[in-house]
Amino acid sequence: xxxxxxxxxxxxxxxxxxxxxxxxxxxxxxxxxxxxxxxxxxxxxxxxxxxxxxxxxxxxxxxxxxxxxxxxxxxxxxxxxxxxxxxxxxxxxxxxxxxxxxxxxxxxxxxxxxxxxxxxxxxxxxxxxxxxxxxxxxxx
Length: 140
Known about the structure:
This protein has one helix at about 60-70, and strands at about 15-30, 35-40, 50-55, 90-100, 100-105, 115-120. It is mainly beta. Strands 1, 2, 3, 4, 5 and 6 form a 6-stranded antiparallel beta sheet that branches.
């Protein structure tokens, strides 16, 4: 026999300020033809969120603020999206309904960089991020 609760939410969104890891970062082109980065982020509790960072066009002013947390405000040169993968950042999120489903979205009015903040710049009310575990030398 299997216990099922049809009234339980599909997933726990838990919006607010949390530590996230960039699991995937890809270069893409928007419908308007502008360059952008598409990010997939995950929290330690398994929550997943997607975000875009515009690199051109009307979204560039917000994109520039977001990108600063990943590459620094003085960056000049060629950007390799793979350099952003694996980065940990603080992100402030809100719940947004999209196509009839609730999803987490970065609150661009929050934190220092349009919803993001460096992992080493702990937001008020948060515990400092635990050190990253390097498991690259762990044998299988």
